[in-house]
Prior knowledge:
Layout: H1 2-10, H2 13-17, H3 22-33, H4 43-57, E1 63-71, E2 81-90, E3 96-103, H5 122-139, E4 147-153, H6 161-172, E5 176-183, E6 200-204, H7 213-224, E7 232-236, H8 247-253, E8 258-262, H9 283-300, E9 311-312, E10 320-323, E11 332-338, E12 346-350, E13 356-359, E14 367-373, E15 379-380
Parallel strand pairs: 3-4, 3-5, 5-8, 6-7
Antiparallel strand pairs: 1-2, 2-4, 6-8, 9-10, 10-13, 11-12, 11-14, 14-15
Helix pairs in contact: 3-5, 3-9, 5-9, 6-8
Bound molecules: zinc ion.
Zinc ion binds near residues 103 and 185.
Amino acid sequence: MLLLCLSVALQSPRELIAQVDASRMRENIAHLSSMPNRNTNNTTLTEAARYIADQYRQIPGLQVEIMKYLAPKGQRVPIQKEVVEVVATLPGFTDRKVIIGGHFDSINMVERTNLEAAAPGANDDLSGMSQALECARVMARRKWKNTLVFVAFSGEEQGLLGSTALAKRAKAENWKIDAVLSDDIVGSSRSLNGQSDRHHVRVFSEESPKHNSRELARFIEWNSRGKIPGFSPKLVFRRDRFQRGGDHSSFNAEGYTAVRFTEPYEEFTRQHTKEDLIQYVDFDFLANVARLNLYTAATLAEADPAPTDVRYDPKQAHDTIIRWAPVSGSKFVVYWRDTTSPIWQRAITVDAGKGEITIPKVNKDDTIFAVGSIGGVPVEAK
Ligand SMILES: [Zn+2]
């Protein structure tokens, strides 16, 4: 028992983020970006998937799958074909899942019709793919309560094909997904017009009654506050940037909670061109993005299920009473913020088994409340 506690204590989220190693991400990006391209229409995609799957197979405890799906004929797919992507699972004690992913396919949009055109795609999106792989390397060193799934998506540049295939499969197979962290273009802190910010990564989230993505974004901020020296998320309350898309949206479309991480100042002239090269990747910045993903996933991976039936007592009063369905043995956290605050301002942990709390001298008329399991995405009170 003592030994068990000790090994868990040694590998808390805080301990784990110290183990992120940028040099391994550099190796993976160097290898894959040296291929002429990784266009989903080409055999180079299959080659890249094999390399990534081999990297995951070297990590003890992971179950690695090369998942096949059909890329239908379309604007960016001249001939319908079966293609692949990589899904690596670290089984937990429960079947509730946290997914971390980035896409490994690339495209050259300057020479649109030439599928063989150079597309190193070092930042878009080997940065996201390699940080997921690095999270897997560190997280596989211990067993987690919940299951972790690390994904290298393909077909992103053809219209989110790979993430759509996985999200639809998840739905068909009834996967319980607590959160999807999709990292796309997370490897550079500066643009060529002189703007730079090494201290933040943007987190995009969609607000919808069908999923809890906005609350996931708020939780990422609250949970990581002060935990990663000199680095924090910048929440953006939008689905994505204008005219752009990402793999998180495929999961949102199936009703799953999912957000997108993207660097603060993108250099658009290097995206989807032969200029998306490894020498423009800032590995210290990328390591911090990996730490934020890791810290978030490690917390979510130990969380109990979210509470249900979270309600305000509607009576007029100076104090606020919140109720939820109690679960024996489970502790919950009550969060609150001003109606004008985008982020949580206060939180209190409630004793195990309880399903009610009174917050004295806080008026619900001016305040938004939520309740979450410890380390889990909170649910807003209704
Ligand atoms: Zn991308």
